[in-house]
Amino acid sequence: MAVVKREPGGVKKKKKRHDDDEEPREKFKLSDEITEPSDRLEDYIILLTGEKKIGKTTLASEFNTERSYFLATEVGYRGLRIRKSDIADWHTARAAAKALQKAGKKYGPIIVDTVDKLYTLCEAYTCDKLAISHLSDEDWGKGYSECRKEFDKFITTLSQIGVGLILITHTEEREVKRRGGGTYDRIVPTMSKQARQVIEPLVDIWTYYMYDGNRRVLVIQGDDHISAGHRLVDRFRTPAGKPVRQIDMGRSAKRAYKNLVAAFNNEYEPPDENREEEPKTKKFKIRK
Length: 288
Prior knowledge:
By secondary structure, the protein is an alpha/beta fold.
């Protein structure tokens, strides 16, 4: 008869668990390579906010016109020559992200117009998935958590393709409470709080497109009243080395894009704000 060996006490010995303190199965190798920041504006993740009808979509269309790709959740591209896919639901959005990921660097930058509507589609998908009418119907914030996780996964997929990402949204004024009491108005994106929590920490450049009198300007560095800024230490400086806070956008999308690139390359010289320039008018010859 075969003899079966048993552990003392008749208890079978368990396999030893792999603790975090133990040596990993594969040795981790540190990299000796130093990353270099891209010298191309289109490679960065840009949040393009601004007033309605000021020209956000038109400005975005000037980024690499031969390779850029629009994920259009709104019909704001009529009159523009662009490559795009209409995104009417979240299933289409996911399929588009997967196709762009598979295409690699064939297209870029990727332009989402607008992020507000994209998140709304994600909300509808999440509610349908959980069989609820609103995200708040799930206990303990599970609905919001599921939606944010789905939205975060989508945006992360686009951002990691490595071809640049431009996210377009509108803006509104919101009342903000001061710590010491009182309130003030601040211009912020119209995205929902959950969408902002995903987008804002991700972007490299956050701009605000606005009117300043009869001029259109792009704010690069915000303040207490305007949400804008960037994390590029050696970019957006004048030839003299001073930080550029806003860029004159001129009277056309081409001029706007040219000035933006010049500012990125530290070649932009801001106009003298103390000197008012009269707008150029076309002169007509009077026939006698």
